[in-house]
Design a protein that fits this description.
This protein is an alpha/beta fold. The protein contains 14 helices and 21 strands.
Length: 469
């Protein structure tokens, strides 16, 4: 399906200066940026409604040095954010790529707020693992669905053309020069659209089982919690064009997806002092390391199941997220006044579970570190009423991809930019390195928003200046 067609003899029904493939956050931001630079833009979306993986996320974007942080008294900077990214990924990401997005994302959020009215605010009541400052920004609902709705509304208000149910099945190219795309409609009809520049914003390959088995074998059988349209088209096209790729094994997992409800349970349930136990009622890891690496750890437990355990105070914090409110409404969150009663509802060994919580309480009181390396110093005790959610590990999205430069232009294996091809979001190599443990919370939407704006602006400028060929 993801083919490259030679340009010789291909006729196009019409031509758009900038074509964007994908209607998630990266594609919508790219379209807004290109439009603002005065270029005609066409967004192509395979689904009936643009949503992408963004709609499945909590919609939180990490950004340093923003006005919302300043208003909340939070000290932060792009350099500090970049250091956190590199530290989480153990020095693997390209420092230039990290600096690029760390510097661009704050201004991008303020631009979206000022120009398009997106009402961002900073999450200032809990911290995510690896972040040395509270820098997660989201809309009031803390919902990815709300984020993509607002971005889609901004695109519609700007008068940008969005063609839905238009799956791009081939790129038309003259060597590395993209001349257009082939679109296949649900009824099988085919159209060809020319372009001056192309932005790949169609995410990674998380929905392609063969590519997941090849690059992330440890999650080959895991629940996939991303968008099914993430079939690796950008990667396949890029490789066929000779593009450089990097960190293809990098990915974001999540160790707390309610099962079988299939709802994300915010990691605040852990960072605020909650724990995870397995079907035996025992803890099995340092949960506080990060939710991405915890996915594979949970999947190694009996039946690939764990329980996220917290209390009423933590539930109050978690309710700022629409997903958590939905989980409660569905009855996925169990409640009890005593550990033994909660264990009965969980159908696990009450004695083992009670002993586990007693040991956690002891560690918190002593400010101690457990055998897994989790430091409980300063962590509030769990108090009744207690809460528990049955969860599993899941693959959310891949983090490796096409290598891009400071203008989000796709580079070939020698580091030379392809003439008019750009990539953003999951289509581009992210800043998480090659392992799940390198994923710093928010890295996915970070590159969607930061690189989306960079790619759209650069593509529009190149087309207008005639420098894309």
């Amino acid at each position: 399906m993801s083919r490259i067609l030679p340009a010789d003899g291909v006729a196009f029904e019409f031509t758009a200066p900038v074509v964007v493939i994908g209607g998630g956050a990266a594609g919508m931001v790219a379209a807004l940026a290109a439009h603002e630079r005065g270029a005609g833009v066409l967004v192509l979306e395979r689904d009936a409604l643009p949503q992408g993986s963004t709609a499945l996320s909590a919609g939180l974007i990490p950004a340093p040095g923003t006005r919302w942080q300043r208003d909340a008294g939070i000290e932060d900077s792009p350099d500090r954010f970049a250091a956190d990214i590199v530290a989480k990924a153990k020095g693997e990401p390209d420092p230039a790529a990290v600096a690029r997005v760390a510097q661009a994302v704050g201004p991008a959020l303020e631009w979206l707020a000022d120009r398009y009215g997106l009402p961002f605010s900073v999450v200032d009541n809990f911290s995510y693992p690896g972040h040395s400052a509270r820098r997660m920004h989201g809309l009031p609902s803390r919902s990815g669905a709300a984020l993509i709705d607002r971005l889609r509304g901004a695109v519609e208000t700007a008068g940008i053309d969005v063609l839905c149910e238009a799956q791009v099945t081939a790129l038309v190219a003259d060597g590395g020069d993209i001349r257009g795309v082939e679109i296949t409609r649900p009824d099988g009809s085919v159209e060809r659209v020319g372009c001056g520049a192309l932005v790949l914003a169609c995410n990674g390959y998380g929905g392609n089982k063969a590519l997941v088995e090849r690059h992330v074998p440890e999650l080959a059988g895991a629940l996939y919690f991303g968008h099914p349209g993430n079939q690796g088209d950008a990667l396949i096209w890029g490789e066929a064009l000779g593009a450089a790729t990097r960190h293809l094994s990098g990915h974001q997992g999540h160790g707390s997806v309610a099962h079988p409800a299939g709802i994300l349970v915010t990691w605040a349930t852990i960072t605020e002092g909650g724990v995870q136990v397995n079907a035996e009622g025992r803890r099995f890891s340092n949960e506080a390391q990060g939710y991405s690496e915890q996915a594979a750890v949970v999947l190694r437990q009996p039946d690939g199941i764990a329980w996220t355990v917290f209390d009423d105070r933590i539930a109050g914090i978690a309710r700022q997220f629409e997903d958590f409110r939905q989980a409660e409404a569905m009855g996925a969150v169990l409640t009890a006044d005593a550990p033994a009663e909660l264990a009965r509802q969980m159908k696990i060994d009450a004695d083992a579970f009670s002993a586990t919580l007693a040991e956690v309480d002891r560690l918190k009181a002593a400010g101690g570190t457990d055998g897994f390396g989790r430091d409980f110093a300063g962590s509030a005790p769990l108090l009744p009423p207690y809460r528990a959610v049955r969860v599993t590990g899941a693959l959310f999205h891949t983090q490796g991809g096409l290598v891009v430069d400071d203008d989000a232009r796709v580079l070939d294996a020698q580091g030379t930019p392809l003439p008019n091809l750009y990539a953003a979001g999951g289509a581009a190599c992210g800043v998480s390195g090659s392992k799940a443990s390198g994923y710093l919370s928010g890295n996915g939407l970070l590159t969607a928003v930061a690189l989306g704006r960079i790619a759209g602006s650069a593509a529009a400028s190149a087309v207008k200046e005639g420098t894309n060929r």
